[in-house]
Amino acid sequence: MRLVTFPGQGTPISIPMLKSVIRNKGKEFQTVLDNCGEKSNDLLQFILKNPSSPGSIAACSNLYYQLYKTTETRPKKSVLLGHSLGELVCLSANNLFSLKDLFDIANYRNELMVQYTENYLHAHRISRSSLFEMWALSSPRARNLPEEVTQLLSALPIGTVSIANANSIKQCVVTGLVEDLESLRTELHLKIPLLRITELTNPFNIPFHNSTVLRPLQERLYDYIWQILKRNNTHTLTELDYPIIANLDGRISFLVRHALERFVKCSSNTVQFTMCYDTINNDLAKDLDEAVCIGPGNVIYNLIRRNCPHLKTYEYSSLTTIEKFHDAHVNDNEKSSFKKQVDDGNEIENKI
């Protein structure tokens, strides 16, 4: 069985890498676009011009996945895992809605987070010029860094700081108002040996996965997605084509409603990626033998490679990594046929 992963909203799209894939996999990529509907070419143009848009990142990841499925010569039973926004891509990979729907949901989710952040600032009479920051914390000496940070936060009167992502036992991301985070800096260094703090970009000023600020978005996000499912006549589906390991608690969702509920809840709760590793390394240890980490980017590839060492892990985010994955999964005759198809990208390249 194969684990298939998708990245989150913080993963940048490398436009040169994407264009290289389009240019060299032109025939396959055009097939993907044709299968995604009449507006997919326009959507691709938007992605190329707006690579930091949440909708662009989600749609780009879906396009990489569809390319992977189109060129997959030896299909294997799969289980899916997405990081934050990537969990929405998992739902799209189950054919619950279109590429354009995925794009719209991702952007609507981001709009809700911006709106409820502004509502929180207004309700607490905090200046709108106040900034929420994100810090990546890491320590090679930590036994369980997310738990250590949680204990520290519970002992201090700091209202807006919370853990957004528990990415591993040695790395997590915290969010909070900049003044609250700065007041925590000294305590963090005193309590956690060899701590490294990396300040991340946060262009939308969102305290990601902060339940205090973002909890109210859940109902509106769920309703928005549900209306899209009804429009696509997929709201009556019960079972997922591909089970999804949930960020919320690491449990495996086999039913559509469970997967949808867990994604929506985790949009305002901590991404518990360490729990997902536990599921992979314990509950699925006898079933999973490899992972393919869909792009853009290689952040999730590195996390899976380090935290699930029993899996043979492949990156799928550039021409080089795509061909490496393909070469590892085809026989000699298939390889020869595949390499003859690298010059079919002229038509789509002209559109770029």
Automatic annotation (TrEMBL):
Record field: catalytic activity: holo-[ACP] + malonyl-CoA = malonyl-[ACP] + CoA
An example molecular function term from Gene Ontology annotations: [acyl-carrier-protein] S-malonyltransferase activity
InterPro entries associated with the record: Ac_transferase_dom_sf (IPR001227), Acyl_Trfase/lysoPLipase (IPR016035), Mal-CoA-ACP_Trans/PKS_FabD (IPR050858)
Domain of life: Eukaryota
Signal peptide: none
Keyword terms, alphabetized: Acyltransferase, Transferase
UniProt keyword Acyltransferase, yes or no: yes
Record-level GO BP terms: fatty acid biosynthetic process
Recorded GO CC terms: mitochondrion
EC number: 2.3.1.39
Name listed for the protein in its UniProt record: [acyl-carrier-protein] S-malonyltransferase
